[in-house]
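Progress against Task 2.4 (sequence-to-structure conversion) is shown through the following example record, which the project officer requested during the mid-term review.
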Amino acid sequence: MLVLSPRWLWCAETGLREGAHLIVHGDRIVDVVADRPTLDAERIELEDGLLTPGLINLHNHAFSAPLFRGLADDIRADDLPGHILFSLLMPMGDLVADIMSPDAIGDAVEMSLLESLMTGTTSMLDIWRPQQRQFIPRATQLGLRTWSCPYLFTLPNLAMDEAGKPVWRGEDASELSFDFVTRMHALWHDAPDGLASVGFGPHGPDSNSPELLRRIDAAARELGAIVSIHCAQNPLEVAAVEAAHGKRSVAHLADCGLLRPGVILGHAMFATDEEIAMVRDAGATIASCPLGFARSGRGVPMARFLESGVRLCIGTDGVTLDMVDELRAASVLAKTQSGKPGLGSAERLMTAATRDAADALQRPDLGRLTPGARADLVLFDLSGPRYQPVWEPLRALLTNGQGSDVHTVVTAGQIRVHDRKLLRGDAAAITRRGRTAIEGVWAEAARRGAIPEKLAAQRKFA
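Structure tokens generated for the chain above:
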């Protein structure tokens, strides 16, 4: 038995309460009471604590976070010989598959997962390539609840044609991709009672054939699995889909069965108002990652998403891993784009990162602090000077706070972080191993010329 006694307790279902006590038994919340319970239980009390459901990161690439940290920031016009995708991201990704051992990849991934857990993420949907399969055991060991959606491709190789336009090439990988995901599902999927879920992650409507997309839809329905797919994430994808199928990306996915509940569209950055309405009406979800696009000089259409009524959730895209930072960015974008300071409120965005994300994953037992819900919880410490005086705790958190103010993290009823310390595992050792793994691949990338010359000249890669 565990009793948590914060000053404030919030969830989207019941709103903000002060002075309540939350009782956990096993992996479930059994009650929320006004009077201090006289139970024989472990207790966590925090005088200026804000207890919320655990944050759910609905679109991420954990391995990309440390691999490109710093390398893909502040890119100037002449730093790269071409588009960042072709001149930096793809070459580095190819190199990783060539030289990094599974353990080294796992070390880098675990460092990202540690950062996520320590800053309040309790659940994560991550899209990864086959060589990054260490994601599942490393996340489970830390206590993160995860949805793994391994990539599927019909054409796996992104290249440039004679006109300088991106094209997907290579031998048909549909069967190989599909078989890999179904094997991962058989090996690792232990939801709802376990921490690991496995779904399908077709890369996009331009890199997957209609036949493969329809096969994924049928299998996902049969298995009750989530599908996460990049959609309308850049103009090149939209144009390629339109040229191949005579319609834009969202309508094409609808034709393939992948516009429905249980399908999460990554980014939808270039979706029209009509397409956003199609997503809304079909019961699908948009997962937006504002900081990832802001790094490249673009603002995601947060105001349009929020005003449309579509189910909108938030991810970090493997750029930053702090969901508090990501939610603040979403709020600021909504306000500046609309000119409405009330749009993108703290309560609206915290709802997106908790209850709405749980519903997108078809898990109504998550994202809530109500009896019967799974005990995935985060306790923020609002005692620091940046918060004082606290007028309204959710607004204080998203306006002034940061993920490092997480005091306690509970997943599946187990305390994973307490008083800012990881309880099961050596956080310093995890960080050292992850740093060593990435510095090693950076050095080899520089030696092989995979880091463009001007970027490499900005620092020495030992």
